[in-house]
């Protein structure tokens, strides 16, 4: 928990112009370039290490909705200002911070993991500016990521199926606390651990009967 608190403190220091230490998979990085390079390596390693299933266990289509990068900037900026109107941060500060401009990549990684695992017969990914969840039917499910509504909460993952309706995807004991509203969800856990528990949770929910 102490590390998670420090993630927020260090990010806020970075947004006010001071040096920032970034955390990823429990490791510290003292500069943007090191952190961005480590994140790219992690993405590649995590996807390449995913074992595809054949045939896909879920014979339906998955529509995956992730927030656009602009929606992420706007939501987090509004949340920060709502929490503290006098906090010295601008939208441009968020655009320059790899924690924030990497969030869309984080969310896209989640969908790429589902795709590489070949859980669904078909997968369609869409970015949204404002979240609108389409209707599901017997041939399609919807997976979506909802951005936090304030700085006290974090993003949430949901799976909508015709049989069971809206289901929260719970990916285990490493499920981040609300401090990660301003930190990458992989800050303190190995990508492989997140990947395996997330995919297991989605597959279990998608295959459950009423």
Kindly describe this structure:
The protein has one domain. The N terminus is likely disordered. The chain contains seven helices and seven strands; from the N terminus they run αββαβααααββββα. By secondary structure, the chain is α/β, with parallel strands linked by helices. The strands form two sheets. A five-stranded mixed sheet has the order 4-3-5-6-7. The chain has a two-stranded antiparallel sheet with strand order 1-2. α2 runs parallel beside α6.
Unreliable stretches: 1-17, 174-182
Please list the strands of the largest sheet in the order they lie side by side.
4-3-5-6-7
Which shape, going by the Cα principal axes?
A: globular
> What is the makeup of the main sheet?
5 strands, mixed
When the domains are counted, the total is: 1
* Count of β-strands: 7
Order of helices and strands: HEEHEHHHHEEEEH
User: How much β-strand is present in the residues?
Assistant: 15-25%
| C-alpha Rg (nearest Å) | 17 Å
Average pLDDT: 84
Q: Helix share of residues?
A: 40-55%
Tally of contiguous helical segments: 7
Structural class: alpha/beta
Distance separating the two termini: 37 Å
Describe, in short, the structure shown.
With 210 residues, the protein is of the alpha/beta class.
């Amino acid at each position: 928990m102490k590390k998670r608190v420090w993630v927020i403190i260090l990010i806020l220091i970075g947004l006010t112009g001071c040096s920032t230490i970034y955390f990823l998979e429990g490791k510290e990085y003292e500069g943007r370039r090191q952190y961005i390079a480590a994140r790219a390596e992690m993405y590649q390693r995590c996807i390449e290490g995913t074992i595809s299933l054949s045939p896909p266990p879920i014979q339906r289509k998955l529509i995956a909705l992730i927030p656009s990068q602009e929606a992420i900037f706007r939501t987090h900026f509004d949340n920060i200002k709502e929490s503290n109107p006098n906090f010295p941060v601008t939208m441009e500060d968020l655009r320059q911070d790899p924690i924030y401009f990497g969030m869309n990549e984080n969310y896209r990684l989640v969908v790429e993991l589902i795709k590489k695992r070949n859980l669904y017969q078909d997968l369609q990914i869409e970015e949204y500016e404002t979240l609108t969840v389409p209707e599901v039917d017997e041939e399609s499910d919807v997976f979506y990521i909802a951005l936090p509504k304030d700085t006290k909460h974090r993003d949430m993952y949901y799976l909508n199926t015709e049989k069971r309706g809206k289901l929260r995807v719970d990916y285990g004991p490493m499920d981040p606390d609300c401090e990660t509203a301003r930190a990458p969800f992989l800050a303190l856990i190995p990508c492989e651990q997140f990947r395996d528990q997330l995919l297991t949770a989605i597959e279990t929910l998608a295959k459950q009967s009423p």
